[in-house]
Amino acid sequence: MLTRGAKWLLVVWSVLAILAPILPMASNQVDLPHMLAAPTWQAPFGYDELGRSVLERIIAGASTSFIVSLSVIALSVVLGTAIGALSAWSGGFVDHVVVRIIDVFLAFPGILLAIALAGILGPGISNVVMALAMVGWVGYARLARAQTLSLKQREHVRAAIALGAGPLAIFHRHILPLIATPLMVEATFGIAAVIIGEAGLSFLGLGVQPPDASWGSIIREGTRYMLVAPHLVIAPALCLSLVVLAVNLLGDRFRDKLDVRFAS
């Protein structure tokens, strides 16, 4: 039941995020007579301090989180897999350097590094993607390196080397198909982390800038009116929590389905 609900929630999130640019919304339109108005049937989530519809702002924020999460995951997986596999295949000095770089990144909380990078790069959605990707590749590199180390000594890989296959061909045909599953599981959980990271950076003012909407920036703006208009914080925070919970639930289900120990 929970898994089915999580699937439908992510479907709704994805559809709204994709259709947000073409929906008949005016998420940035100021309407002062509705300033801080409570939720009604016409506006289920009420209005913010400028009279803008909170529901429309949340839908626009869903588009932001969707774009950022997919972009960051794609960059992180490609970069991390390439670095990790190259490190494991090369060995020696190259592998030693890559492992030390990974250890340095893992020595600091990822969100702190993302904040530092976003502060250096400046605010903006593209810089948020770059900052989160520069932090997120580490987990995929470590996983790809560990998997490649265990596979490079197998018979089918040794046979391909003996037959004169090049490193790229070996990786594409004999290694990548076998490490794709754990990388996909890691990427599923990574989506939730990126959504939280983007919201956190926007909450701190380092992410999406006004008047563009982000769940983090909506929550930040609503905290100033928490006592008189709590719906400004409750609605976006609830949407953020539900989407992250749904992603994690489906990630657990996906991992269990692919794990042979749980296969029926």
Structure description:
With 264 residues, the chain is mostly helical. It has a single domain, classed as MetI-like fold (Orthogonal Bundle). Helices cover 72% and strands 0% of the residues. The protein has helices spanning 2-19, 54-90, 92-106, 110-121, 125-151, 155-162, 167-203, 215-223, 231-258. Helix 3 (92-106) packs across helix 5 (125-151) and helix 7 runs parallel beside helix 8. The longest helix is centred in the N-terminal third of the chain and has 37 residues, at 54-90. The protein is elongated and about 75 Å long.
Oligomer status: single chain
* Largest β-sheet summary: none
Number of self-contained structural domains: 1
- The proportion of strand residues reads under 5%
Helix percentage = over 70%
> Number of helical segments?
9
CATH superfamily: MetI-like
Quote the distance from N terminus to C terminus: 19 Å
Poorly predicted ranges: none
Report the average pLDDT across residues.
86
Radius of gyration: 22 Å
The CATH architecture classification is Orthogonal Bundle
